[in-house]
Amino acid sequence: MSIVSQPLLKLENITKRFKELTAVNGINLEVTLGEKLVIIGPSGSGKSTLLRSINLLEEIDEGTIHFEGSEVGYLLRNGKRHLDRPHAISALRAEIGMVFQHFHLFPHMTVLGNVMEGPLTVQRKSAEEARSIATDMLVKVGLSDKRDVFPATLSGGQKQRVAIARALAMRPKLMLFDEPTSALDPELVGEVFDTIHTLADEGMTMIIVTHHMGFARELADRVIFMESGNFLAEGAPEEVFSKGQDNERIRGFLNRLL
Amino acid sequence: MKYLAGRAFVALLFLWTLTGSCLGAVDYDQLFRQSSDLMAQGDLDGALALLKQVPTPAVEEEAGSFVSSRMQAARILASQNETTKALATCQEVLKLFPDNSEARNFVAALKDQLKPGWHTVLADTLRFLPALAKGAVMTLLLVLCTMLVSPLGGLLIALGRISTLRPVSWLCWFIIWFFRGTPLLLQLFFIYYGLPSLGITLAPLTAAVIGLGLNYSAYLGEIIRGAIQSIDHGQMEAAKAIGMSYGQAMRRVIIPQTYKRLMPPIGNEFIALIKDTALVSTIAMVELMRAADQLFNTYFNITALVLAAVIYLVLTTIFTFIFEKIEYRAGIYEHR
Asked: What is the rounded distance in angstroms from the CA atom of residue A200 to the CA atom of residue A38?
């Protein structure tokens, strides 16, 4: 009833440690429906780990995740935190789309097969229904002419657009982009960027981890600068970029990128 | 005077030679008669010894005795299955009289006997083939049953090994450790001869399939585990990210990608399997190896073993081609 007023995603005190290293250090974050959030920062700053914690590809050590108002992902058993039961985790992931830096398309399936796979296997839709959804998604990313080829024949940009279509076919409520253009040749970044831009215009809620400042400037409602597992700066793009000039480390990072 | 003396000497010499040759001829006739008598008495060696006394002819006139003595000797030798010696005796004649047709014909006949012609091999082949074919069918049956059972067993063992459930992982480790670490022959003996003492009696075929199945499951288990773990971890993450369960991800994404990588090592294993089936001949099963062995022991004829080798080669060749085809088909998505 009051879902709209609640944040779609709420992270509290998220902490993730890898042995000695604290990759994410007590992060709090709220993402409202339709918001476009861009996270920037140097390599190893914990951006990807934070993103992967959201759909439980990383198991966090502390903190809670609320999605659509309810706590997800973990159970308390005998005072110890455990990952929730597998089907609950899968159900959450089905509602959150993720796009990876290296695409991770299924090489043994055609382009159409890749996009159909979620509706077909996870949502157990009929083959016709899954095919029609997948066809729509391929039209949306502009690759309907590639539906019957295998991923090996595609360019990097095309692969990433198929990966986006594969995630969209599940009709996710939130999209996570983990450096979606970092593995691409510079001339192929544009087509992927355009696809994400179209998606943003349609009102999709998204969190993008990127080194591509174009995303931040053109798409973001809010930009977060992350370093060493902490948020160093947070705000509207122009705010972070201008205020960032006062912060030596943000300035250094931005100058190195530009 | 001198002239007369010369004439007399020549005449004497002629007479001596004539007498000598006449005396010799008489001796040889006697010799032939004696040797015929000995042959009649069954003393072939004695007859042979006498015939050998006929010397290499010094003059044309003595040729007849020499040839007939040697040919007679050759016939005796041939009748004693001393084909090589008979041939050598004939050659003695041919060396002096290359055109002697009797000797030449006999040599040809002997050579025919010495190396069996194609008709002999063909006759043996036709004689042995039914039994060998029956054995080959049993070998093929064993191979196909094991090929059906062991990939499933191997997949279960592989999934068990990478399971996060410790007891399952340990059990699968133990199975691999045991069945890879002991001889297949010992496992077969244990299943066929050992289990009855525990009250479990198995038919030879059942015991053989269980033994081969378990052994090959253990080997394939490690191969399949390696193939699964060689698939990029991102594939599992991508599958999970669209909401797949571990089982769905394995079934739809990971395992299908292992097929191409699995084909070369599994093809290897199955070719080894074709030959390993020979071991079940020790547990009262008549398959190809046992059938060949039985024929060899009955007829002392090496053709049976050669045929078995040929059949094994035909089987392994067919399987090699099939696996190459499957490997190509399984990896078709990688071809640009």
From this structure: 12
Which of chain A's residues have a Cβ under 8 Å away from the Cβ of B336?
152-153
Mean pLDDT of chain A, nearest integer: 92
Exposed/middle/buried for residue A144 (C-beta within 10 Å: 0-12, 13-18, 19+): middle
Contacts of B246 in chain A (CB under 8 A): 86
Q: Which of A100, A108, A117 sits opposite B257 (nearest CB)?
A: A108
User: Which residues from B are below 8 Å from A97, CB to CB?
Assistant: 241-242
CB contact under 8 A, A93 and B333: no
* Nearest residue in chain A measured CA to CA from B254: A106
C-alpha gyration radius of chain B: 38
Q: What is the DSSP letter of A107?
A: T
* C-alpha B237 chain-centroid distance: 54
Helix (H) or strand (E) segment spanning residue A9: strand A9-18
What is the per-residue pLDDT across A61-111, written as a single tens digit (0 to 9) for each?
999 999 999 999 999 888 888 899 999 999 999 999 999 999 999 999 999
Nearest to B140 by CA among B275, B269, B310, B283: B275
Domains in chain A, start-ordered, CATH in brackets? Answer: 33-55+87-257 (3.40.50.300)
Q: Give the confidence band of A54 by pLDDT, cuts at 50, 70, 90.
A: very high
- E-assigned strands of A56-173? 62-67, 70-72, 74-77, 80-83, 96-99
Q: Judge whether A109 and B254 are in contact, CB under 8 Å.
A: no
Q: What is the pLDDT of residues A128-153, one digit of tens each?
A: 999 999 999 999 999 999 999 999 99
Per domain, the residue ranges of chain B are 2-114, 118-334
Whole-angstrom distance, CA of residue A171 vs CA of residue A194: 19
Distance from CA of B325 to the nearest CA of A (A): 17
Rounded to whole angstroms, the Cα distance separating A202 from B2 reads 149
What pLDDT, on a 0 to 100 scale, did the predictor assign at position B119?
74
* CATH of B2-114 among 3.60.15.10, 1.25.40.10, 3.30.450.20, 1.10.10.60: 1.25.40.10
Question: Do A14 and A60 contact (CB within 8 A), yes or no?
Answer: yes
> Cα(A103)–Cα(A181) distance, rounded to whole angstroms?
10
Q: Is some CB atom of chain B closer than 8 A to the CB atom of A171?
A: no
- With a CB cutoff of 8 Å and minimum separation 6, the contacts of B319 are B267, B270, B271, B274
In this prediction, residues B238-253 reach a mean pLDDT of: 96
- Interface ipTM above 0.90: yes
For residues A207-216, give the mean pLDDT: 89
Task: Work out the minimum CA distance from A124 to partner chain B, whole angstroms.
Answer: 11
Which pLDDT belongs to residue B22? 47
Q: Check: CB of residue B292 under 8 Å from CB of residue B307.
A: yes
What is the structure's pLDDT at A129? 97
Distance of alpha carbon B99 from alpha carbon A172, whole angstroms:
103
| A210 closest CA partner among A178, A238, A256 | A178
Determine the Cα–Cα distance for residues B248 and B269; give it in Å rounded to an integer.
28
Q: Write the CA distances from B16 to B10, B29, B53, B61, B65, integer angstroms.
A: 10, 20, 22, 15, 20
The amino acid at B300: F
A229 touches chain B (CB under 8 A): no
At the second CATH level, the architecture of B118-334 is Orthogonal Bundle (1.10)
